[in-house]
Write a structure and sequence with these properties.
The complex is a heterodimer of chains A (248) and B (322). Chain A is an alpha+beta fold and 248 residues long. Helix content of chain A is 29%, strand content 20%. Chain A starts with a helix and ends in a 9-residue tail after the last strand. Chain B has helices at 8-33, 42-68, 70-73, 91-114, 125-151, 164-191, 196-234, 238-243, 252-281, 289-316. Classes of the chains: A alpha+beta (248), B mainly alpha (322).
């Protein structure tokens, strides 16, 4: 009986010690203090302010150009949502890309370890020299972000322009966005624009019920689906410029 | 309609893989059932047919799978070897290794039956018995994994059901039995022409065992189909919307007529007509050869329709909302 409390308290001491360590770590995240410590890992995220999107498809084209993406497939695309009954109508735009999920279902199912979530920045990448093109990850992605690149035969998708980001440049779609609707940056840096925008706006992610924890956030996104039309009695049409034209 | 990333090669693979794995597992269990493989007679004959069906069916299915790979289509013909460079917890990785192992073991198992003079007590006897013990769990594992492969994806609500793997397993065993019976009915005469006197006396009993097993398996399959559809229908959201594809959607006829009516109910009714008199009243078992072939053909067709409907239905449906 005397032994037990002692061992418990010993455990408590350990707990307090680790808790203290966590406290120190969390103070390090306060601006000012953060500048003193060197952050080696990054957590890249994107916020898309759909209020500023005019549906010009500059991002789609910039992405196509950046990666020479073959015809018929897209790493990045823009969906348009038409809804309402005249005269109360609206056309909203929903730019889409890989969500770089914190819990990426595509990564868990890859049989050859060709795709993984990078520890250093959280970007989900594909090694096209390893990928066998089994399409299992395409089935696993709830966002339809992946496709088979007909040139390489490998699965392909948005990688936040890793080759640009590595050099300190913004992703091609962010760089080209006329309305500055896309904000990209490191969430581990509390002074970054993306951190500030994320903490001062209400944001949503796509299909949060899938539990994928996306790293692409939307401000004022229109989550209307064609199924909502029946319930609301509205005319709703969702279109993408992808070959199958339907949202996946 | 969503893009069909997995087409006919995958459907045929799931069908042939299941059929081969089922035939292998049934063959080995029938062999072991006859005194651990020591007794000669019709059980050995059945085991032999199953053993000879298993490797070609699974190899054919797996071979077709390679054609569906993006890397193969892009000209990297041997990129699939990467599957055997790593092992991880992806159902496809585990499945590839299982398939590889099954193919090797089933080839060796078939080899022990390959000579026309193969019989219990010959030089392959001990090897055959040992391999049979491995074939039962391996066959079941391969048949199960095909369902787990599809069921592991929350993004595909039609597939994401814990009972799908069970459905595939039962379908694999029943198509395996049907393939053995069909092969025996078609080619049995020429194989056992030399020792006809021994065979014919107990061949009936033996076909009875398999046919009644098939009846039981299909009975369970009907129940599993019912549970699969019922639980999906009782859910709310993506899964319920997905199952509507077979409850009034574009694949309804294919599912209820092609799979349930032609592939399950009709063969069950025919089998009951011939099995029940023996089962209930111990009458002499007689199953006309033509009718037996028809039933086996229907069961095999049903197995294909199941794979077809499930693979397509899973891809034309998806998460709802955005």
């Amino acid at each position: 009986m005397t032994d037990k409390p002692t061992s418990l308290s010993r455990r408590d001491v350990l707990k307090k010690a680790t808790g203290g360590a966590a406290l120190i770590a969390s103070t390090a995240a306060i601006p000012g203090v953060a500048q003193a410590t060197t952050q080696t890992t990054k957590r890249y995220a994107m916020v898309i302010d759909t209020r500023r999107c005019v549906g010009c498809h500059a991002c789609t084209v910039a992405c196509k150009t950046e990666f020479d993406v073959p015809l018929g497939v897209n790493r990045s695309w823009v969906e348009s949502i038409e809804k309402g009954n005249f005269p109360h109508v609206k056309r909203n735009f929903l730019p889409r890309l890989c969500n770089q999920c914190e819990e990426p279902p595509c990564v868990w199912v890859c049989p050859v370890n060709a795709t993984h979530k990078r520890k250093e920045d959280g970007i989900v990448t594909i090694d096209s020299d390893i990928c066998i093109g089994c399409k299992y990850c395409i089935q696993a992605c709830p966002y339809g972000a992946r496709f088979i690149n007909p040139k390489t035969g490998s699965a392909d998708k948005c990688d936040f322009c890793l080759h640009r980001v590595r050099e300190g440049l913004a992703p091609a779609c962010v760089n080209t966005c006329q309305g500055r609707a896309r904000i990209f940056g490191d969430l581990n840096d509390p002074t970054s624009e993306v951190s500030r925008v994320l903490s001062t706006n209400s944001v949503t992610v796509l299909r949060p019920e899938m539990g994928t924890e996306p790293m692409v956030f939307y401000i004022d996104a229109d989550h209307t689906d064609e199924r909502d039309a029946a319930r609301t009695g509205q005319y709703v049409r969702v279109e993408t410029h992808r070959p199958n034209e339907e949202r996946v | 309609m969503h893009e069909l990333n997995w087409g006919l090669p995958v459907i045929l693979y799931l069908f042939f893989g299941g059929l081969g794995a089922g035939a292998g597992a049934v063959s080995a269990s029938v062999l072991l059932r006859s005194g651990g493989g020591d007794q000669s007679g019709p059980s050995f004959d059945i085991a032999r047919w199953g053993a000879l069906i298993a490797p070609p069916a699974v190899i054919l299915g797996t071979g077709l799978l390679v054609f569906e790979l993006g890397s193969f289509q892009a000209g990297h013909w041997f990129r699939w070897i990467n599957l055997f460079m790593v092992i991880n917890l992806s159902p496809m990785s585990l499945g590839s290794w299982l398939l590889g192992l099954f193919i090797l073991v089933s080839l060796a198992y078939a080899y022990t039956f390959f000579k026309a003079s193969a019989k219990p007590g010959d030089e392959q006897h001990n090897l055959r018995k040992k391999l049979a013990w491995a074939m039962v769990p391996l066959g079941i594992a391969v048949a199960l994994y095909t369902g787990i492969l599809l069921g592991a994806l929350p993004a595909r609500p039609f597939w994401n059901s814990p009972i799908l793997a069970m459905l595939f397993l039962i379908s694999a065993l029943s198509t395996g039995v049907a393939a053995i019976l069909l092969a025996r009915a078609l080619f049995g005469k020429m194989l056992s022409a030399d020792d006809e006197t021994v065979e014919n006396t107990s061949a009936e009993n033996d076909s009875y065992l398999l046919t009644s097993t098939d009846l039981l398996l299909i009975g369970f399959e009907v129940l599993v189909v019912f549970l699969f559809v019922m639980y999906a229908h009782l859910s709310v959201g993506a899964i319920e919307v997905a199952v509507n594809v077979v409850l009034g959607g574009e694949l309804t006829t294919m599912f209820w007529f092609g799979f349930v009516a032609l592939g399950l109910i009709l063969p069950v009714l025919i089998e009951m007509k011939y099995v029940l008199p023996t089962l209930l009243y111990q009458k002499k078992y007689q199953f006309p050869a033509g009718m037996e072939m028809l039933v086996c053909g229907l069961v095999i067709l049903g197995g294909f329709m199941l794979r077809y409907v499930v693979v397509i239905a899973g891809q034309v449906t998806g998460p709802v909302g955005i």
